[in-house]
Amino acid sequence: RIARLLRGYRHVPAAHIDKIVFAIVRLSQLALDHPSICDMDINPLLAGPDEILALDVRIQIDSGAHTKPVIHPY
Q1: What is the 3-state secondary structure (H, E, C) of 34-57?
Q2: Three-state secondary-structure class, residue 12
Q3: CB contact at 8 A, 29 and 46
């Protein structure tokens, strides 16, 4: 359902998918570089044809949380 919306509809242009992918990869790298990040909430994340914009971000830090990733890094 979301993929259809990202392709654009009515007067809303398609989102730039490559920029969305880049943002997800960078967020993943941020989590790997800072293992004390235990929770991250971005809501809303606006994806347009030219830019990606996070309007509100909450990052929770746990200084004792230094665990290895569950999956192999990208």
Answers
A1: CCCEEEEEECCEEECCCCEEECCE
A2: strand
A3: no
pTM over 0.85, yes/no: no
Calpha distance 21→35 (Å, rounded): 21
Helix (H, G, I), strand (E, B) or coil at 58: strand
pLDDT at 70 over 80: no
- The rounded distance, in Å, linking the Cα atoms of 13 and 46 is 13
43 close to 56: Cβ distance less than 8 angstroms: yes
The number of residues in the chain equals 74
